[in-house]
User: Which sequence fits this backbone?
């Protein structure tokens, strides 16, 4: 009689395995629906252009609080452009590593900008220097950001760009003065100073960093692009869209953007840097 039940332990084991598999799949599904951490793919590319020195600097870092990307474009006309961009990015990353909780992110951007400005001035010791800066943090599918100067943050989604920040240049001030009736349209459009920065890191008059009031909810396959003016002043949005629409990795896309910049062979090609963060699952 006992021999007839020798298979019973195997049935029990098999049943337990099946139950564990089902529970695992249910748990995985619940996690996926309840804020599973999305995978962030990172790509970057850079060219010195025809400049004698590379004044752009960038860095990315993955931490428990999210993925951070920072890009700074040192002001080429100032002697300390390279030192300023390096100090700004390095300081931002250091400040990010001090975060204890994700809720500190809004204060992080403002505090990191102030610390970067102070560090640049300390590093330059009176020499002229300054830098633009764009920084993003992606956590739990949300994009948090801060920006100062004229480097850009854009989201590429379903074949189109979504602009995230605005340029801090005199052109916007002139547009406001035109709207208020202080100057004519021609005076606003034809000003030779319209591309001059009105806010940047590295001087006593630094105002503040533009910070997103609310995080941007990213969708699957969104590409977040950070770039210096050496990219967007050389390539059109259509050219950038053609590259970002390709089914290639974030790294390959960044490399293609830089290759496209170099193929233009502009006589006065500025430093060009691009960082791409692509959200997937």
Assistant:
């Amino acid at each position: 009689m006992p021999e007839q039940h020798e298979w019973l332990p195997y049935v029990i084991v098999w049943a337990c395995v099946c139950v564990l598999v089902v529970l695992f799949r249910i748990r995985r599904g619940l996690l996926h629906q309840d804020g599973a951490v999305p995978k962030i793919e990172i790509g970057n590319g850079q060219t010195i252009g025809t400049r004698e020195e590379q004044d752009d600097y960038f860095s990315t870092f993955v931490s428990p609080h999210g993925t951070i990307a920072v890009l700074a474009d040192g002001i080429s006309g100032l002697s300390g452009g390279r030192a300023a961009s390096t100090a700004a990015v390095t300081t931002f990353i250091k400040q990010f590593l001090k975060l204890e909780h994700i809720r500190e992110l809004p204060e992080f951007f403002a505090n990191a900008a102030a610390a970067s400005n102070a560090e640049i001035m300390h590093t330059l010791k009176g020499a002229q220097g300054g830098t633009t800066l764009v920084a993003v943090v992606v956590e739990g599918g949300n994009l948090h950001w801060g920006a100062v100067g004229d480097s850009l943050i854009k989201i590429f989604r379903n074949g189109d760009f979504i602009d995230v920040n605005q340029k801090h240049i005199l052109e916007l001030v002139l547009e406001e003065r035109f709207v208020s009736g202080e100057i004519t349209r021609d005076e606003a459009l034809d000003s030779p100073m319209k591309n001059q920065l009105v806010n940047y890191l590295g001087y006593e008059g630094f105002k503040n960093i533009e910070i997103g009031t609310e995080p941007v909810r990213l969708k699957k396959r969104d590409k977040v692009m950070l770039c210096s003016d050496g990219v967007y002043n050389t390539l059109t949005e259509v050219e950038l869209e053609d590259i970002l629409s390709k089914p290639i990795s974030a790294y390959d896309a960044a490399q293609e953007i830089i290759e496209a910049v170099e193929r233009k062979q502009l006589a006065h090609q500025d430093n060009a840097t691009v960082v791409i963060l692509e959200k997937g699952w």
